[in-house]
Design goal:
By secondary structure, this protein is α+β, with helices and mostly antiparallel strands. It has 27 helices and 24 strands. 35% of the residues are buried.
Length: 709
């Protein structure tokens, strides 16, 4: 059974052998994740995935205690220090925190502590609650009031010596007055949202890589081997704990935090003393609601027993204190303010509303925009007119909950009406195009409103040009979306045919390009050569490159195979009339072409301006015909899915060959799938094919079947 299969088995159903294999997989996965996050400042998996995998590991160990590994992730903290820094052995280990993910977990935390201490349910027990800063842990050692050493967490026992770098951070005092002779102050190095945005702007201007989020930026800045680089990075520091100390700071957690503040450290002003679980949860909700306005990233709230004598009695587990826990925010959710609603116009004229948000980190990514889909979605309805979000509309100024899963575009999930400004007005969706002023109409059955301006609309023109040079279309090396947009603004190109006139139209074009920032003789020559190389191009790429509504990559391939040549395709589209005639009937008779797509194709070829633009483009090209698929092919008409690793063909080659033989290539297995070609590493698709009884063969079997063995 594969590792992927094991990961889907419920813990209660694991055998001893499977449990041992799963623990081995999790140990490797979590060790790599720790190294990437703590050691390289480049996380490979999200915090939510990490927490879920660590929870699974702990649950398996609880059910199979005899199988616990010597390198168990439950006994590990952080990662090994980098070889680039000298090592520091911490006088007291830096531990991690256990996690709570819901209110019930917090209640159980309280109950466990009371049980351990022998306290009744109604006995007084106070806690502190403070924001959990999403940054890099740092331990500062002061002797006789002087900063003598600064070290990262490392693996908890041994960290990296970053003293020179820490001295450049304004929030870290070099000397203390009134401190114990020995004091290790612990806290978090972080970067504010404002400083993060400014740093990324400087990185971009310098041609350097942008940082994904403030945590990565802060960690990468602190761990520079050259302290002058750290000095130029806007790092901050919050103190929230201590390690070795020659004399107690106070008798309570709250008192100790106040003492650190009097010594000159920045402490979090949202730290509160709470008398019960209900108060802890109320403060959690309050901090969660303020999250987007704090100006720095947090990923939860940390609860600690306030009485330090009780903390000492409670003590520690192997890697976590019993007296503290981190109540994490949902990884893919966050509340923030909607600052504006902008309307963007796409290449098909669709008016798409976009929410402009107060930036907030969601799932490890800074989110400042979210899709609002269409005017119905803003008004609190779906495409069928049914209520969504309990019918709550979305207005500028609202507090909205945004969500992001994986690489999906952020969306608005909910609206907090209790925080809606009294001046907030329902959003008035425009009925004219914001780019060209043409009417924006919504046809019956269409979920979106569209600009009627066509190619006179600059937004549509630019987006069509970007699509034209995209990978699946003409894919012109050196001419991407950024260059297209600039050339359009300069008046150099207005339609696809103009791209092929660049060199000829501008006799001094090379000199003009050469004098532009980022261009020189070599890059200009290379661009013109790349353009000329695309004059000869396959029919399917031309059809796709036109950017016609409802015609995607697969549809373009289908049309190209059906008509074979540009002359055949162009003649059919010219002869066809929407809804009538032999050419129309032949078009919609193609399996995979519906009336909506057909109408879009025919309309484009009958609109005078658009047809003229197409003709001007075709005049510049040598369009290569596509052979019609053989009806005698053993896979003609069949739906084929490729999965796993192909060793003799690339996935693109396999797909092209299958389509040339008349097969339909799908990306997922369903009841309509006729054949699965599975290479090494095939996972869920192979399993689903087996469940559905779909015929499965390997790559050699496929090559034999199609006669290419």
């Amino acid at each position: 059974m594969s590792e992927q299969d094991l990961s889907r088995i419920e813990i209660e159903a694991l055998s001893d052998v499977q449990a041992a294999a799963e623990l081995a997989r999790l140990a490797l996965l979590l060790r790599r994740a720790n190294t990437a996050y703590h050691g390289q400042d480049a996380p490979e998996i999200s915090d939510a995935d990490y927490d879920a995998q660590k929870q699974r590991n702990a649950a398996i160990e609880a059910r199979f205690p005899a199988l616990k590994r010597s390198d168990s992730p439950t006994d590990q903290v952080g990662a090994q220090p980098s070889a680039g820094f000298s090592k520091v052995t911490h006088a007291q280990r830096l531990l991690s925190l256990g996690n709570a993910f819901d209110d019930e977990d917090v209640g159980e935390f309280n109950t466990r502590i009371r049980s351990f201490l022998g306290l009744d349910a109604d006995a007084p027990l106070a806690f502190t609650a403070e924001p959990k800063i999403d940054g890099l842990s740092l331990s500062l050692r002061y002797e006789q009031g002087h900063l003598v050493q600064a070290a990262t967490r490392g693996d908890g026992a041994v960290g990296e010596n970053v003293t020179a770098n820490a001295r450049t951070i304004a929030d870290i005092p070099h000397t203390l007055t009134g401190a114990p002779d020995l004091l290790e102050v612990r806290g978090e190095v972080y970067m504010s949202h404002e400083d993060f945005s400014a740093l990324n702007k400087r990185q971009e201007e310098a041609g350097d890589k942008r940082f994904a989020n403030p945590r990565n930026a802060a960690a990468g800045s602190l761990r520079q081997l050259d302290a002058t680089i750290t000095k130029n990075r806007p790092l901050r520091f919050f103190a929230y704990a201590w390690g070795a100390v020659s004399a107690p700071l106070a008798q309570t957690q709250m008192g100790a935090i106040d003492r650190l503040a009097t010594l000159g450290f920045q402490t979090n002003p949202l730290t509160r003393r709470c008398d019960d679980t209900a108060t802890l949860l109320a403060h959690y909700r309050d901090i969660e609601a303020r999250r987007a306005t704090l100006g720095y990233d947090i990923d939860g709230v940390v609860y600690k027993v306030d009485d330090l004598a009780l903390q000492a009695r409670l003590g520690f587990r192997s890697t976590t204190p019993r007296w503290a826990i981190a109540h994490k925010f949902p990884a893919e959710l966050a509340w923030t303010r909607l600052e504006a609603i902008d309307i963007q116009v796409g290449r098909t004229g669709a008016l798409s509303p976009v929410a402009r948000l107060t930036p907030v980190t969601v799932g490890g990514v800074v989110v400042s925009n979210a899709t609002l889909h269409n005017e119905d979605y803003i008004q609190g309805r779906d495409s069928k007119g049914e209520e969504i979000r309990d019918g709550k509309d979305i207005r500028v100024g609202d507090w909205v909950q945004v969500y992001r899963a994986g690489d999906v575009i952020p969306k608005v999930k909910d609206v907090d009406l209790s925080k809606r400004p009294k001046t907030a007005q329902p959003f008035d969706f425009p009925t004219t195009c914001p780019e060209c002023g043409s009417d924006a109409v919504r046809e019956e059955g269409d979920a979106v409103r569209r600009c009627t301006g066509g190619i006179i609309c600059p937004a549509q023109a630019v987006e069509k040009l970007k699509h034209f040079v995209s990978r699946g279309a003409f894919d012109i090396d050196g001419l991407g979306a950024k260059q297209v947009e600039q050339f359009y603004l300069d008046g150099w190109i207005k339609e696809p045919a103009d791209i092929f006139h660049l060199k000829a139209r501008f006799g001094r074009g090379l000199q003009q390009l050469k004098n532009r920032e980022g261009w020189g003789d070599k890059s200009a020559h290379k661009l013109f050569a790349a353009i000329d190389a695309r004059r000869a191009i396959a029919l399917n790429r031309v059809i796709f490159g036109l950017g016609l509504r409802h015609v995607g990559d697969s549809s373009a391939n289908l049309l190209a195979r059906s008509y074979g040549s540009w002359d055949g395709f162009e003649a059919a589209m010219t002869q066809a009339q929407v809804g009538e005639g032999e050419a129309w009937e032949a078009l919609i008779a193609i399996d995979g072409v519906g009336e909506v797509m057909a109408a879009s194709l025919v309309t484009a070829f009958h609109q005078e301006a658009e047809r003229a633009s197409i003709d001007r483009l075709v005049a510049e090209l040598e369009i290569e015909p596509v052979e019609a698929p053989s009806s005698e092919s053993p896979v003609a008409g069949k739906t084929v899915v490729f999965t796993g690793t192909l060793e003799k063909l690339t996935r693109a080659e396999a797909k092209a060959r299958a389509e040339a033989l008349g097969a339909k290539v799908s990306g997922s297995v369903s009841g309509k799938t006729d054949l699965l070609v599975a290479g090494p590493g095939a996972g869920s698709k192979a399993k689903k094919a087996a469940e559905l009884g779909v015929e499965t063969i390997d790559e050699d079997g496929w090559l034999t079947l199609i006669g290419d063995a």
